Amino acid sequence: MSRAETPDTAPLPIIAPDGSGPAEAPRRKDSHDERRADRHEDRRGEAAADRLEEVDAPPPGAGWTTAMRTLDAGLVVGPRAYTAREVAQRMGVSTVSARKIWRALGYPTSPEGHKAFTEADVEAFESVLELVRSGALNEDAAISLARSIGQMTDRMVVWQIEALVEDKIVSEGLTDPEARRAAVDLLPEIVTPLERAMRIVYRRQLNRAVKRLTVRVEAGLAASEEGRDGSESDSPLPLARAVGFADMVSYTTLSRTMDDRTLARMVQRFETLSAEIISAGGGWLVKTIGDEVMFNAETPETGAAIALALAEAIAADDELPSARVALSWGRVLSRMGDIYGPTVNLAARLTSLADPGTVLVDAMTAAALSRDERFVLVPQPPRIVRGVGEVRPSLLLNGSAQTLLAD
């Protein structure tokens, strides 16, 4: 059956049990259920969209509406020409199935009958759907990849807008509302260079990730076996990583005494300095959580060098309080851009035990580093750690290691 002949109640294609490619789902049985689900989702969508339109309406004030319309015309590719149902018909699937894709990509619900989508939007949705129809991915995998695009780009654009607002406040002395209006006016000018850079960097980062998540995995797993007695709970996990945390001391107390701009500068300085050191050392910044950064590295030695550099650089920075740093080497599970497992939990717990300006490691990590003259390990008294049990931490110090330099 061609796409043009496919009824608009068809769900996303299903991969055949033998793996041979897409197989059509039963039409007659699903038709009634799909239509009923469509009607139910449409009613919910209308109510939700009414609320969303109130939230997303342009702020009151002269020029805001015109500015937002100008920005909309500059950023949205093509006129909004399709309703949700028309998009689903174009794609040859049910509205429910089509909605899975655009929600995963971060598109909001639109009112029934409202022309919210452009030709370019439909092309984006069909790109995801084609991954399933071609047999390259099953539905769950395709939706997961779409969600990675939606969530990561959402965080990215919020970061970029807030950075523009902060710059306008600091460099031009604007108030917050004035700075936000200025950011709206500036965006059409800078979006093309940023988009070009993002396309290039995406391919570079994908290339780098492929190497660390596939090519070099076996070497890391082999190295992680050193020092094990066979009882470690992380042994079935698929990747070996050095996992580290750096946590600013007294952040909660300091944040209560600072105005919002001072607090923003401190957090930005902490994240920027940490990201530079982690990148310079050959590691990866997994995430930031306010006063804490989480990173990983492919070897315990690389992780140790980064951990020491973070503790030293943060302590020496006049704008920042000291940081507690901890590192643990072991196996992890990587999912949705994050990492999980006992090794991560242990590193997080060790961070709370470290003194300001110091780095703690667990016994297995200490054993892995003990033959490297760049590091000095000072055993500490055993501690009982919630959710872990007894741990034997060691204080990690510089031996002949060179300090990592960040710009």
TrEMBL record:
Broad enzyme group: lyase
GO molecular function annotations of the record: adenylate cyclase activity
Region annotation (Disordered) ranges: 1-65
InterPro entries associated with the record: A/G_cyclase (IPR001054), Nucleotide_cyclase (IPR029787)
Keyword Magnesium attached: no
Protein origin, superkingdom: Bacteria
Segments of skewed composition (Basic and acidic residues): 25-54
Keywords for this protein: Lyase
Domain Guanylate cyclase: 242-351
Coiled-coil intervals, chain numbering: none
One annotated GO biological process: cyclic nucleotide biosynthetic process
Pfam hit, one: Guanylate_cyc
E.C. numbers: 4.6.1.1
Protein name, per record: Adenylate cyclase
